[in-house]
Design brief:
By secondary structure, the protein is mostly helical. It is built from 4 helices and no strands. Pfam families: DUF6952.
């Protein structure tokens, strides 16, 4: 997971485009937009994170850093 990649997606790609990209990756198809990552798993992680963060920002009226912190806490909890 690379934070700069996630931040770029949040800043530059619309939520509906991210969801379409998520669907394409899940179906093992080439997405319409280029996602940086070492492999498809990392690319999907970046898209998941960007979707989560954008939805949190819109729903709760919070900034990127706060939404990112919530996402990373969620990831840490799921790993533990």
């Amino acid at each position: 997971m690379k934070i700069p990649v996630i931040k770029k997606l949040v800043e530059e790609v619309a939520l509906e485009d991210l969801k379409a990209t998520e669907e394409a990756l899940m179906e093992e198809q080439k997405p319409a937009i280029e996602i940086q990552g070492d492999d498809e798993g990392e690319q999907l992680t970046h898209v998941f994170a960007a979707i989560f963060i954008l939805e949190k920002m819109e729903k709760n009226g919070i900034d990127f850093k706060t939404a990112l912190r919530e996402y990373t806490q969620k990831v840490r909890t799921s790993i533990s």
